[in-house]
Amino acid sequence: MQNISLIENAFLFAGAAFYLAAAVLGMVRLYKEVNMPAGLLAVLIAFGSVMLAGVLFARGFEKGQVPLVDTFEFVLALTVVFSLAEFFTPHNLRKGWFEAVLSLLLFALTVTGFSLAGPVGTLDPAVKTPWVLVHGISMLVAAAAIFFSAAMAYLLLVGRSKLKSKNPLHVIGKMPSIEKLAKLNMLGLRLCTAAMTFGIVSGIGMALSQAEAIDMTAGDWLVDGKIILIMLVWVLLIIILLMNVFAGISSRAIAYVTIGAFLLALLAIVGVAVLGGGAHDFLAYAGSFRTEGGVLCG
Fold first, then answer.
1. Contact between residue 100 and residue 30 where contact means Cβ atoms under 8 Å apart
2. What is the largest CA-CA distance in the chain?
3. Dihedral sign (CA 200, 202, 204, 210)
4. Distance, CA of 259 to CA of 96 (rounded, Å)
5. How many domains would you assign to the chain?
6. Lesser CB count within 10 Å: N end or C end of the chain?
7. What pLDDT, on a 0 to 100 scale, did the predictor assign at position 258?
8. Using one digit for the tens of pLDDT, what is the confidence trace for 138-185?
């Protein structure tokens, strides 16, 4: 990538290579039932995350602030947070499918990071408020939670499919029970809803407190692609939780909706940035400002 330094490129390539190796080995172990050294995938995932964390640390040191002010850095931070699932998820969940799926997602996010890479920027002084910190952390937690739920939902659907197949023994010992996965899915959805609510409220607080400096109207926010998608995800989560309480919706249906919500969230985080558009950008490069769509950015 021409927009980032050679060292950052090297670290990103190394991180992607470690994640890809973990994904390939995970699939080989799963489908070929090959015995591998204990903890090998965890080591590969850890090395990949260290590479990405190195990029974030270098950019944060250069700008003198938390490196979460653009989509590229947010995706890298999100990838590192997702990788923690390898170390904080119970051991019985990390057998078979989980590590293979996790490694593939980490690799995909790292590759996506390449398409979003840009020069080091700093946050526009107009939006340097406590609201920004709360907003960023809340949305990061929400993203990690919806990923966790999507992973549990995927494992649940795979487990149900295998149990109905002619060889249900293929799934025994490789993943937890369907009931356990359903409970973990709901746990992640509740956490995501709570964190996303904080993120939305803090985002509104930032917009109201800095309305004149940002120079954006309510209409500008309402037509922003990222905000529209995030609000759709939030509404979808509320509907899932309400239907689970009052309508007794099946775990299978919840799993499908969870994966749909995750894809919408991924589109909001990554897709909008890749496709272009959106006013959700408050960066300043090299101390100079330009205006795009009424937003001060670098």
1. yes
2. 65
3. negative
4. 20
5. 2
6. N
7. 93
8. 887 888 888 888 888 888 887 777 666 655 545 555 566 788 889 889
Rounded distance between C-alpha atoms, residue 231 and residue 201, angstroms: 11
Which parts of the chain fold into alpha helices (H)? 6-32, 40-63, 71-83, 85-88, 97-116, 130-164, 178-209, 211-214, 218-222, 225-246, 251-266, 272-275
- Euclidean distance between CA atoms 212 and 250, whole angstroms: 47
Residues 76 and 139 grouped into a single domain: no
Q: Is residue 7 over pLDDT 80?
A: yes
Task: Match 């997702």 to its residue by tokens.
Answer: 82
| Whether residues 87 and 210 fall in one domain | no
The model's pTM is 0.67
What's the token pair of residue 118? 């840009």
Tokens of 65: 């602030």
Residue-wise pLDDT tens digits, 89-127: 666 665 567 777 788 888 888 887 777 776 666 555 555
pLDDT digit string, tens, across residues 51-75 = 999 888 887 777 665 566 667 777 8
The CATH number assigned to the domain holding 114 equals: 1.20.120
- Consecutive H or E run containing 239: helix 225-246
Helix axes 178-209, 225-246, angle to 10 degrees: 140
**pLDDT tens digits, one per residue of 204-238:** 877 776 656 556 665 666 667 778 888 899 999 99
Where in the chain does DSSP place strands (E)? 122-123, 283-284, 290-292, 295-297
H-only helix segments in 84-129: 85-88, 97-116
| Dihedral of alpha carbons 151, 153, 158, 163, sign | positive
Q: Which domain holds residue 97?
A: 1-120
